[in-house]
Design goal:
five-stranded parallel sheet; 280 residues; two-stranded antiparallel sheet; 39% helix; alpha/beta
Length: 280
């Protein structure tokens, strides 16, 4: 897809997000809206995947792991629009017996999901295991992971970071959603993360950064990371985003981390997210 097409799709995904959360008055719109552009970029331009032949093994295709699983609405929307399951199934989000649970799960057998997530801090360990597995099998595809900045307050992240550097795992590209917000307030108020670039660098990672709302910037940083394959150094991208991106009254505040819009707020959001694509 070219950049205008990616941008158009991202707007539709944002429409999906606010509609899904509104319909059940439950879910996490803020971070989902903020990470929309990254997931659209990965699934529609970067990653080699075959939605029609999904299996849990994922051999000879790129893998993505969502560590901050509470932003499931954006992942579900992108997976559906990429062809993993019918777009109409988005209407079942968080409902009883739905495959689209509040946090991604494997029990229901939803295509595209290879590990349950949402217990924060665990996703990097899983992604590194998958990356090592690919190397051992001679599979040259990539593993991508996404983490919240507040999630970096979890100790397991840093254990995994040490592991990756020690084992020279360089077929992983991890993104940190640096929006400065978490459920109880700003990350600076809850527990300051300090100099994240210096921290990751000290743990032996190559540190890149980009604007998480620019497809050109995302493409450039991914290309740069790919160019370092074979160096034995894992790469992390500190991705600057705005929580609630695309809906003005949701942007930049932790208050929309995990609440749903009212009927009027939904309409206001949809008015801002004009799309030529079809809603589910």
């Amino acid at each position: 897809m070219n950049t205008p097409q990616l941008s158009s799709l991202a707007t539709q995904v944002r429409r999906d997000i606010v509609r899904m959360v509104h319909a059940v008055q439950s879910g996490h719109p803020g971070g989902s809206l903020g990470c929309t552009d990254l997931l659209v970029q990965l699934y529609f331009d970067t990653m080699t995947v075959d939605p029609s032949a999904f299996d849990m093994d994922g051999a000879n295709e790129d893998l993505f792991f969502l560590s901050n699983g509470h932003i499931s609405p954006v992942w579900y929307s992108v997976l559906a629009r990429r062809g993993y399951f019918p777009v109409s199934e988005l209407s079942t989000f968080r409902k009883l017996n739905s495959r689209l649970q509040g946090h991604p799960a494997t029990e229901e057998g939803l295509p595209g999901i290879r590990v349950a997530s949402g217990s924060l801090g665990q996703g990097l360990s899983v992604a590194l295991g998958a990356a090592q597995s690919k190397t051992l099998r001679g599979d040259n595809c990539w593993v991508y992971s996404l983490h919240g900045d507040g999630e970096l307050q979890e100790g397991q992240i840093w254990e995994a970071a040490m592991y990756a550097a020690h084992h020279r795992i360089d077929n992983i590209l991890s993104f940190v959603d640096c929006n400065g917000q978490q459920i109880d307030g700003s990350t600076d108020d809850v527990m300051s993360l300090g100099d994240l670039a210096a921290k990751w660098s000290a743990f032996g990672w190559r540190v890149l950064s980009c604007d998480g709302h620019s497809f050109e910037a995302l493409q450039e940083v991914i290309s740069e990371a790919h160019g370092h394959r074979g160096s034995g150094i894992p790469t992390v991208v500190l991705m600057k985003t705005d929580m609630g991106k695309g809906v003005d009254f949701m942007e930049g505040t932790h208050k929309w981390h995990g609440i749903a819009p009212s009927d009027q707020q939904l309409q206001d959001a949809l008015n801002q997210l004009e799309s030529t694509l079809e809603d589910y």
